[in-house]
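REVIEWER CHECKLIST
Item 1: Sequence provided? yes
Item 2: Single chain? yes
Item 3: Sequence as submitted:
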Amino acid sequence: MAPQDTDNKSNTSPSSDSRPAAARPDTAKPFYIVGIGASAGGLEALESFFDNMPLGTDCAFVIVQHLSPDYKSLMPELLNRHTQFKIQQAEEGMRVEPGHIYLNHPKKNLIIFNGTLFFAPKEDGLNLPIDIFLRSLADDQGEKAIGIILSGTGTDGTRGIRAIKEAGGMVMVQDEESAQFDGMPRSAVSTGIVDYVLPPGRMPDELKSFIAGRYSLASRGGQQALGSEDSVAKILGMIRTRTGIDFSFYKPNTIIRRIERRMGINQIETAEEYIRFMEEGPNEVQTLFREILIGVTKFFREPEAFEALKQKVLPEIFRDRPASEPVRIWVAGCSTGEEAYSLAVIFDEYCEENGLRHDIKIFSTDIDKDALDFASYGVYPESIVADISMERLARYFTKKGDSYQIKSRIRERVIFAYHNILKDPPFARTDLISCRNLLIYLQTPLQKRVLNNFKFSLNPNGFLFLGSSETVGDSSSFFRSIDVKWRLLQNQGGHARMDAARTMTDAHEAMRRLDHQRPAVAAPVSKEQRAGDSVLEDVIAACLAPAVLVDENRRVQHIFGDVSKVLHLPKGRMNTDITQMAVKDLSIPLATGLQRAMKNMEEVVYRNIGVHGKNGESSVFHMAIRPVAEHEPARFIVLFEEGGAAESEEKGQAVEYDLEEHAQKRIQDLEQELQYTKENLQATVEEVETSNEELQATNEELLAANEELQSTNEELQSVNEELLTVNAEYQKKIAELTELNDDMDNLMASTGIGTLFIDADLCVRKFTQPAARVFHLIKSDIGRPIAHISNELEYEDFHKDVETVLRTSQKKEAEVRSKDGSWYLVRIMPYRTGSKEVTGVLVSFIDITDRHLAQQQAQNHHEELLKLLETSPAATIMVGKDGNIRFVNEEAVRLIGLDREKLTGLDIFDAGLGMTDANGAALAPEKNPFEMIRQSREPLSGQTVELHPNASPVLVSVSGKPVISQRGRFEGAVFKFEQLARD
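Item 4: Structure as written out by the authors:
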C-alpha cells in the first residue's frame, strides 16, 4: 500500500449571481465542490444540513440522490425553504459556480469534468449514481473535492469517498444514530478513511473550519506552514516509534501534503502545534499513518493491463511447466486485496480455458495490518459491480446481504502476510511480481533497493508487473520489456547480487522475526526429576529385553533399551513408522505380527527370526508383540530378544517363524484386503459419481435460480430506494398541503364570505359555513347536484348563470335579495387549476345588506332634496366642481327663460347666459362668482349681474355657497338668483 499524491485541479468560473456583493462568494479564487450523496431518509438530513449552512461559503454543492425516473422530484421546492443558496436542476454543460446547489437528473447519471456538469446514461443492472459522481469529482477536482454521505440503504458512495481520499480530498459521513437508514453511512465508515462522522446539523461548522484552515495553509505555502525540515523529521519519527514504519525515504511532497491535510482538518496552523497535538493524542499518529497509506486499488484496475497480462505473460509462465510444479506470485503492497484477487481470477480463468491443473499460490503483502485483516475476509461492498463483469461476479463471488464475498476456492490461493519490502527479505522463486503504483512514492535509492530485491526474488524468466506511471530506471538492463504501455517486464535471467551489508541486515531481521515466532520453552526440569528418570531407564534396560512402545498407527512412542541391532533411523524425511525403521529381515514379520495383534488384541510371538547384519554376520531374534491392557487409544509393546527361546504367554502362542510361509501368508492377507478395498472403493466411486451428477444438476439449477433472484433483488432494492425517496418527498409535500389547507379554512372562516365550490358536473364539492346558511347545506350534501338543493335567494337565473360560467369561463356578478330581506353580492367565477384548466365553478356570497340599506337611504335623501329644491320659491342652480350646471329648479327656468334640457350641462357662466356686470360690460375672471367661491371656498352674497339669455336682459342678485366633501375637497357650489328691478 502506498500514499496517493494528486495535483490540485481546482476550477474557477465567472458568476452571474445577482445577490449583493457581501453575500456573493469571491469566484476569483479556487473554490471547493461538495458532492452530497443521499438516498432513503436523506431529505431530513439535507434540510438539517442546509439549515445550518450560511450563505457566502466558498463552495458549491452537488446533491446526488436515488431518484425514480417515473416521478417528478419535489426536492427544489422542499429544499428552497431551508437555504438561501440558489438551487438549480443540473443541465448538460452547466458550469459549477460557488454559492449554488445543483440537483441530479432522475433519468441520468451525473458527472463533472473541468468544473462542468455532464450527463451519462444509467448503467445496466445495479446503478450507483453517487459513486459515479464522486469518482468523477475526485478525478476532476483533486484536493478541492469534498464528499458527504448521508442517510440511505445499500453501499452506494463507498467507492466514491475512497476515490476522493485517494485524490487528497475530505470526507464527511452522517453518524448512524442520526441516520434514518444507516446502510450507506455504515458502509462508508467501515472503510476507515472517513475524516468526520457527525450529525448533519454539525457538518457545516466543521466544513467551514476545514475550508478556512486549508485556505490559510495555502496562503502561507506548505514548507512555510510546516517550518523547517526538522519538524517533518520529528513527525515521521513519531510515526516510526508508534508503528515501526519509517517514511523518511518517501518522496517529501507526498508526506507534506498529507501532514498539511491533517493540520487543516484539526484547524492547526503551525507544525509545532501539530506535534504537540500528536503527543497529546496518540490516535492522531495512527490516523496520519493511515492517511499516508491510502492505497489506489480496485478490482481489475486498468482492465486493458490485465488483458495484456493474460495474453502475453500467462502463456509464458505455463509453457512447458510440469503439473507438479506450483506457480508462485507475489503482490507487493496489496492494500485491501483487490489486486491479489484480480490476479487469482485471471489465473483461474486461464487455467480453466487451457485445461491446466497447476497449484497457484499468491503471496500478498503489505505494511498496513488493518488492510490485511480486511483483505483476508474477502468481503467487499456491492459497489464492486461497477468494476467486475456480471459473469465474473456470479462465478467468483457470493452475495451476502449488501456485500459480496470471494469464493473459498479463490480465497485459498491467496496468502496475506505483513511484509515490509524495504526491510524484510524478499520471497524466493517467484514467477510473477505485481507492484503497481508503489515505486513512484519512493525516492530513487529505495526504488533501486526494491528493484534489486525483485530481481533476486524472480525466477530466471520471471515477470514484473508495474503501474502505468512507473519505470525500472537504471535497472532496465536487468529486465526486458514485454508491454511498454502497461509496464510488463521480464527478468533477463539469473539472480541479482545483493550487497553484503543489506544481506546481513536481512538475515539478522529474519532471525529476530524467527525468535518471535518460536513457541515458548517449557519450564525447566529439576535435578531430582532428571535423576529419577535416569534410574528408571537403567532399571528397565537391566530387567527387560530391548522393547518399543507403538501406537495403533505403528508410530514409535518410546524406546526401552538398546535396539540398534533391530531398528535404525531412515534417511530423508523423518518417519517414525516402526516397520520402516526395522532392519530388512524384521520388517515383514513385524508388520504381520502387528496386524494380527491389532486385529485380535492378543499377544503374538515369533521365534528364530534370522537377521543378517551389514558385515555378513547372522543372528537369531525372538519377537513378542503385546497389547497394553486398558489403554485408550490402543498401544502395543514390541519385545526383541536375541538367541534362546522366547516364552509364550497365556494369551498367545509362540510360532516358529518361517520366512517363506509367513511371507506367503502376508501376501494373501494383503491381496484379500486389497480386493475388498477395491470393491468398496468402486462402489463408493459409483455412489460419489451419481451423487456428483445429481448435485451438479441441482447446483446448476440453484445457480440459475440464485442469479434470477439476485437480479430481481437488486431491481427491487433499487426500486425500493427510489420509492422511499419519492415517499419522503410526498410526505413532506402532504404536510405542507395540510398546513396550507388549514390556513385556507381559517382564512375563509374569518372573512365571513360564503364560498361554494362546484365541480364540472355541477355537484357540490366544498362549501364554507356562511354558504351553508344560504343553501341549507350539510356535510352529506357534498357530491349532490347543486340544482337539487334549495336556497334562500330570489335569484331565478342562478343555475343558468352557473352553467354559463362553466361553459364560457366568463365571470358573472349579481346583487340579489334573500327571503329574509338580506342582500348578497353573488360572484360566479370559473375554478382554474395550476395549468389554467377550468374544472368547476366558484360561487361567493358577500353580504351587502348594510351597503344596500345605505344606498337606499341616500337615494331617499336625494329624492327629498330634489323635491325641496323644486318647490323652493327662489331660483336655484347646482353646479359641479367643473362649473357645469347639474340641476335647475322650475323658478330658475322661468327666470332665465331657457329650457331645463338646454341649461343642464352648460357652464353656468357660459356665453349662453350672457352674464355681464350691471353696466353690461364683460366680467373679469376675478369677478366671476363661481371662480370667487372656488378660490375662496367662502359663501358669496348679493353680487349683481345681468343675464342676457334672450333679447331682454335680466338684472339679478347672485348668492352662493361652496359644496365641500367630508375630506375637505371642493365638489361644486349652489347658487340662488333673485331678480332685481331696474331704476
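Item 5: Key structural point noted by reviewer: The radius of gyration is 53 Å.
Item 6: Recommendation: ____
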